[in-house]
Amino acid sequence: MIKKRKYVYVCRNLLFFSAVFILSACKPSGHQQTQQNKSNTQLQQQFQQWKAKQDPKLLADYYQFMSQYLKNPPSLMELTTTRNSMPERCYSKRFAIPPRRYWKNVVSSLQLVEKLNRNEYFKRYTITAVYRSPELNKCINGAEKSKHLYHYAVDFHVLDPKETVESDRNLLVKKMCQFWKVEGKHFKMGLGVYGNNRYHIDTQAYRTWGKDFKSTSSVCLKN
């Protein structure tokens, strides 16, 4: 009887520590969370400083123009800020409003992202890049014909699967690729799959690519 109790006690402890290990692996550490919060605060401050130097009417006109085409418009900060990874020397160039002649270019891409969200391919997401100014593109050595230069593309980060487990992230990739294969031609959908729940969508041509921006690296074209 004593041996049996000891066995149960050991098993419970093993289960407890296993659970703690799994949960700690799925969540960012306290240090990582603190660094992320600090980075977000700094970015918000930089955005507010940039915004204060802009023409208020131009900002309002741009946001109103974009909002009329969307059911749930992104924030002005999302629409005017490039938050993708870049050298620190380029930080001051990551805020920009596109020329008026480009404003409507990205509407269909944003609507497609909304459609995926509405159809529950993912529940929560944040936009990390829309328009990229020539100055920023040069600073980060971006592609000369990048769709972001002409306000055609949307980069976004899906939040939910990353907060759970890797299998959920892989499932999302499969679902995104399946959508691209079935409906991509209709939408002239360009789908970039960068890993870690980061994607690019534009509606300029039916194609796909991966982390190195080449079609050969896209998981959508692998068996």
Automatic annotation (TrEMBL):
SUPFAM superfamilies reported in the protein's UniProt record: Hedgehog/DD-peptidase
Protein name (database record): Peptidase M15A C-terminal domain-containing protein
Matching Pfam families: Peptidase_M15_3
InterPro entries xrefs: Peptidase_M15A_C, Zn_M74/Hedgehog-like
Domain of life: Bacteria
Peptidase M15A C-terminal domain: residues covered: 106-166
Record keywords, A-Z: Signal
Source species: Acinetobacter rongchengensis
PROSITE patterns reported in the protein's UniProt record: PROKAR_LIPOPROTEIN
Residues making up the signal peptide according to the UniProt record: 1-24
